[in-house]
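#onboarding

Welcome to the new folks! Below is a worked example of what a typical request in this channel looks like: someone posts a single protein sequence, and someone else replies with the predicted structure as tokens. Don't worry about understanding the tokens yet, we'll cover that in week two.

Example request:
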Amino acid sequence: MEEKRLIQLIKEKQGVMHTTYLHAGRNLRDEKVLAASEEIDHLINAIMRRQIFTHKMRIKERKETYLPLTVGP
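Example response:
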């Protein structure tokens, strides 16, 4: 899933979670509030995993582009 779409889903889920929180009498331990929070956490983790993977790939590509230096005759 594209990162922009994941961010959009996070914003939508945050709105749902806030509404659910208000309907639950501002109870953070309500099952529906906790479930929405968990979904948001999963989406955020997906974005972070993708960013870390992309960062590692960039580092690997940079290392491969450098030619090894030889010393001696």
